[in-house]
Amino acid sequence: MFGSLKRKWNRKHLTDERFAFLFDETASDEVVVFDCETTGLNPKKDALISIGAVKIKGNKILTNESLHLYIEQKEQISAKSITIHQIRHCDLENAIPLEEAIETFLHYIGNRTLAGYFLEFDVAMINKYIKPMLGITLPNKQEEVSAIYYDKKIATIPQGNIDLRFDTILDDLDLPRLQAHDALNDAVMTAMIYLKLKHVGRLKRI
Amino acid sequence: MIALLDTLKSHLPFSLLDDAAFKTIEAASQIAYYPQDTVLFSEGEIPQVIYLVIKGAVEATNNEDLIDVYHSNDVFAAIEVLKNSASTETYTVSEELICYEIPSETFLALTKEYPEFKTYFFSSIAERIDMLKEKRENVKAAEMMVARVDDSLLHPGCMVDADTDILEALRTLENSRASALIIKNEYGYGIVTDADLRYYILHKEEDNLRKISQIQSYPVIAIEEDELLFNVLLTMTEHNIKHLPVFDERKTLLGVLDLTDLLSYLSNQTHLIAMQMQKAENIEEVIKASERIEIMVSVLHAKGVKSRYIAKMVSEIHKKMYAKLFEFIFPESWHERCTLLLLGSEGRGEQILRTDQDNAIIFEEGFEPEEKEAVLLRFIETLDKIGFPRCQGNVMVINPEWSKDLAGYKSDIRLWIASPDYNGLMNMAIFYDTYAVAGNIALFKTLRDYLFEKVQAHKEYLSYFARSVESFESPLGFFSRFVSSDKKHKDEIDIKKGALFALIHGVRALSLEHTITKTNTTERIKELNNVGYMNKEDAHELLEALEIINTLRLHAQLEKLENEKEMDNYICLRTLGKLERDTLKEALKTVEQFKKRVAYHFHLAAVS
């Protein structure tokens, strides 16, 4: 109830009707898993560098419809953040303006459910930009993969501490770890976690 | 680029593609998840996508018979798509699967654009293993180059004083059979080689040449012992010289190194070891020569020499070794009155690394030397020293069972045939692989003829004999389930039990039936083709399978040897490359078919 109220409130503030499709009620059977690379971990201060996203439909990750956007940077990327995400200035050759990137992303996700690892951060990052642009925050349903993992895991070890680190989850689910660390590969790995969690009946105890 | 595709780039056949092709694949493919027991496509269907396993396992079955198993980085459905033909197997997920799915149109377009990529799918196992070997070839060449000069490579040096008369010096050289003459001067050394002699012949009158020092090349280019062979080769090519004296620290001449020897050493140490063995004058020298065999094996293997040739070389050297040991250890009075036999893998000439000693001795009827036990024990102890582990089945001359006179063995043979129990069948198998290595070979021939005669008179025995080809299940069925079945050998298969045993024994049974006297499995297969039992294609396929299995086993064993682990017959599936696993699977399939053929031939279903 509260959710739908909030949703209506959000809809009322949409300033650009071209994006009304975000509020479309017809259910989609697809989920979008996405990941953002940023200059730091503070959504308020730090800037978006790239977005990687893939769609999931049924038992498949539609890598053939994947999205990988690099965004033009106003400020120099600090040496410290380069060591984290390994995106150098020269990698931004195909970068596009921020507004174009956000619009492309919104068209890509449509009204689909969003999934991700530590999704709150990525959503906050996007919201930071669309709030001034469109007057709204992302209205899409959201699924946090670490939460799904936690729920499945706690059933097997009720008193245990559950390690929610990304690599731990990958290992526990026996999924391949991709060497390349970029938004798209992270999204693909997260998508594999999501897919497996959705299909697997029980998780291992340890 | 999605990194999953990156790992593919290093695996055949995808390593035959370029980045543009990968972009095409990426733009069209999806990642799919299938829970266990999902049927991907059934017998009679044409698959719509090419599957590329990321994680998990898929089994291909035909009427419940397991045909193949696919693991990480394996590709399937490609042949069906290429031929646009219905699958002859049903593909079922046997372990939760994550895979890439490349649409068939994309795949077909790629095969048109990259002909090599297409050819790969139609290449035979033999061609694939050749591709593998090329890859391995260069690995150990480098290690050889860091080997050092030691005296086994050197020819004895011949040295004369500077003021020696030329003709006298040459006479000394001639008598010493050395290839170059070293001249000792007041300060340092000189050398006289063929080129200097040419000069002497042409100019001896005009230059009034008398003393050897007048025609020497001085100072000589020389090296110290322990120099890297790599540097030696450089020195020789740089100065364009064929003979290089080697001195020790105190400047004493150790010998002369010949370029031909160096080059052949770098290409293969075999003939040197064989020569060393041949020249051995006592037991210690035999032991010393055999120490080098292992190094030779790993070098030859790294160079991509087929394992059956390696086995042949090793077995040739071993035969020389046994002949020498026989000469040194067994009293002269025995030599014509007994035969030393090699049995089992050594008898077949298939023991590349020292897995165990299998030997026996036949005595002439009535010959019972007093010192028998002491001599035989000394023989076994010498083999211990060389590094042959004792035979666990106790097939050794120190066991009275394997040290009998002719009549004793004859009665054994009758017994083996009359009551084909486990031991009898085992003994027959071991004995039929016998190679008579030293002593009076005629004794053995008599016994072998006797064996053939008895077997031919009791043909029904052959079915009992052949039965054990079915003793072990094929590891193909285990490929995915092996993990849980044996914790100690996770992801490993026992290649001896799983395939080698059945192959060797099947060939052995057929050979016994056809009274083939060869003991080596390769040669037996060729004989089976010659006598008309098996056509050329089947024989070739079997030989290839044998080669692949032996190569992979040797590779695993060498690795264990290097890491000082216990040598066994396990092959670790995880360490195998994609291509190696493919070829192994093909080989295992060939062995399975061969097992069926043997079972049918000997009506094994009727024996129990």
Give the structure's gist in a few sentences.
With 206 residues, chain A is α/β, with parallel strands linked by helices. Chain A has helices spanning 2-12, 79-85, 98-109, 119-134, 145-154, 166-172, 183-199, and strands spanning 30-38, 48-57, 60-70, 113-116, 142-144.
Order of helices and strands of chain A: HEEEHHEHEHHH
| Derived structural class of chain A | alpha/beta
- The top-level CATH class of the largest domain in chain B is Alpha Beta
Radius of gyration of chain B: 30 Å
The total number of structural domains of chain B is: 4
The greatest inter-chain interface is formed by:
A-B, 22 and 21 residues
In terms of per-residue confidence, which ranges of chain B show pLDDT below 50 for 5 or more consecutive residues?
135-146, 478-485
Query: Which runs of chain A of at least 5 residues are low in confidence (pLDDT < 50)?
Result: none
What is the architecture of the domain at 2-143 in chain A at the second tier of CATH?
2-Layer Sandwich
- What is the chains' assembly state? heterodimer
CATH architecture of the largest domain in chain B: 2-Layer Sandwich
Largest sheet of chain A: 5 strands, mixed
The whole-angstrom Rg of chain A is 18 Å
Work out the number of β strands of chain A. 5
Task: Report what the structure shows.
The complex is a heterodimer of chains A (206) and B (608). Chain A has seven helices and five strands, in the order H-E-E-E-H-H-E-H-E-H-H-H. Chain A is an alpha/beta fold. Chain A has a domain at 2-143: Nucleotidyltransferase, domain 5, CATH 3.30.420. Chain A has a five-stranded mixed β-sheet with strand order 3-2-1-4-5, with helices on both faces. Chain B folds into four domains: 3-122, Jelly Rolls (Sandwich); 151-267, CBS-domain, CATH 3.10.580; 270-458, Beta Polymerase, domain 2 (2-Layer Sandwich); 467-606, Four Helix Bundle (Hemerythrin (Met), subunit A) (Up-down Bundle). Helices cover 50% and strands 15% of the residues of chain B. The longest helix of chain B has 27 residues, at 536-562. With 608 residues, chain B is α+β, with helices and mostly antiparallel strands. Chains A and B meet through strand 3 and helix 7 of A and helix 1, helix 2, strand 1 and strand 6 of B. Strand 3 of chain A pairs antiparallel with strand 1 (30-34) of chain B.
